[in-house]
Specification:
The chain is rod-shaped, with a radius of gyration of 48 Å. About 30% of the residues lie in helices and about 35% in strands. A hairpin with a 3-residue loop joins strand 21 and strand 22. It is α+β, with helices and mostly antiparallel strands.
Length: about 400
């Protein structure tokens, strides 16, 4: 009997434990449900708050390009002018007027500046007066000679007939010789005066500075009132030039080619040049000459490259990249497919940049190589295909991998 009571008491103690355990599990299940519902709501809110972006489609375009297989060597260089001069006066003087400005076109022998010519003009006037005096002396000597000549001839005849004495003849002869010598001296003095006049005229002409050849003014170095001299005789306050003139018809490219690859270059070889300022413009060119010396500091050889035709967009000191073509190279007449996108879709950094592409509701940042740019569009040479959605607008606020919604 006691055993049954003990057993019943044990059963009574076990039932509250089960009830408490069952209630705890219910609370845990309720908490898990709340977490799941909250997570779903949070996920829904997160998706609902995805930023909205404007997109545009990359469109097909074409750009000229030489055949990639025809280029045997690429190198960089600069546009230089084979014919340029810093023009100066031949004499030291004060600038009276400067008749040029940067960018102005001048022709050969055109006046570009004038120096103060007061002293030179005074010397010229003095030389003119000295020449006139020399001419008067010649005329006087000629008159004396003309008068002495018949007297001497007559005395010779009279002496032959024993009419006059030998002393009288000697006197006439002395007068004749003196007049002839005076005439020769006066004639020589006239020549000296003529030479002095020519020198004075040359000095006056040297106050006028002329262009040595036709070209474009790139530097205006002197102003009115400054002193100029061909050898800077006045020290640091004296200019040595009036301005710099460049013959734009003589523009070419100087390229430093590694001596390891100079065997791929030859005179007359076809070249395609690309200015850094116009990377999508293929300029036909050719090798003029290979300078027969190497720079041992850089281990390079200088190569001169000439343009097939001049263009006003080509300017001195522009950076340029050239591709040396193998025999039969196309020289830039073929085309290649590229794409264009709105200019506001690109974050540019020189000839490269990045765009944000929308793929599966997320942003993807892509690096691209850029070509020519206009006010509204950007040429993309590589990194994008036609039909790709690119984001336009405030790109600085976007991050790679972020979820977005495309505006309709």
């Amino acid at each position: 009997m006691n055993d049954k009571t003990v057993l019943l008491d044990q059963l009574r103690l076990e039932r509250p434990v089960e009830a408490v355990s069952s209630g705890a599990w219910r609370w845990w299940a309720l908490a898990a449900a709340v977490v799941l519902v909250g997570g779903g709501v949070a996920a829904w809110l997160a998706f609902g708050r995805a930023p909205t972006v404007q997109v545009a489609l990359a469109e097909v375009a074409t750009a000229p390009a030489s055949s990639p297989t025809s280029a045997v060597l690429d190198a960089s260089g600069y546009v230089v002018a084979r014919r340029q001069a810093t023009v100066s006066a031949k004499i030291t003087g004060k600038v009276a007027s400067v008749l040029i400005e940067e960018g102005q076109r001048v022709e050969r022998d055109e006046i570009i500046a004038r120096l103060d010519d007061a002293n030179a003009r005074a010397v010229l006037n003095q030389a003119l007066a000295q020449r006139e005096q020399a001419r008067a002396n010649v005329m006087a000597a000629q008159v004396a000679f003309d008068n002495a000549t018949p007297t001497y001839r007559r005395n010779e005849q009279q002496f032959a007939r024993a009419v006059i004495s030998a002393q009288t003849l000697d006197t006439a002869k002395a007068n004749f010789d003196a007049s002839r010598t005076s005439l020769d001296v006066a004639a020589s003095a006239l020549e000296v005066a003529e030479a002095s006049l020519a020198l004075a005229q040359r000095n006056l002409d040297d106050t006028v500075v002329r262009a040595p050849f036709g070209g474009v003014v790139t530097v205006k170095a002197a102003q009115e009132g400054e002193m100029v001299s061909p050898n800077s005789a006045g020290g640091g306050f004296t200019r040595t030039g009036i301005g710099t003139i460049v013959d734009m018809e003589s523009l070419e490219v100087e390229v430093d080619v590694s001596e390891n690859f100079i065997n791929r270059v030859r005179a007359g070889q076809r070249v395609v040049a690309k200015l850094n300022a116009y990377p999508d413009w293929d300029i036909p060119a050719h090798v003029i000459a290979i300078i027969p010396t190497a720079d041992r500091a850089k281990a390079t050889v200088k190569v001169r490259v000439g343009f097939e035709a001049t263009d006003e967009r080509i300017l001195p000191q522009m950076g340029v990249r050239v591709s040396f073509l193998e025999e039969g190279g196309s020289g830039g007449t073929s085309t290649r497919e590229v794409v264009t996108v709105p200019a506001e879709a690109v974050q540019a950094n020189g000839d490269t940049g990045s765009v944000f592409v929308v793929a599966n509701g997320k942003l993807e940042r892509r690096s691209v190589r850029l070509g020519a740019r206009s006010d509204s569009s950007q040429l993309v040479l590589s990194g994008l295909t036609a039909g790709t959605q690119v984001v336009i607008g405030e790109l600085g606020q976007l991050t790679d991998g972020a979820k977005v919604r495309v505006a309709r």
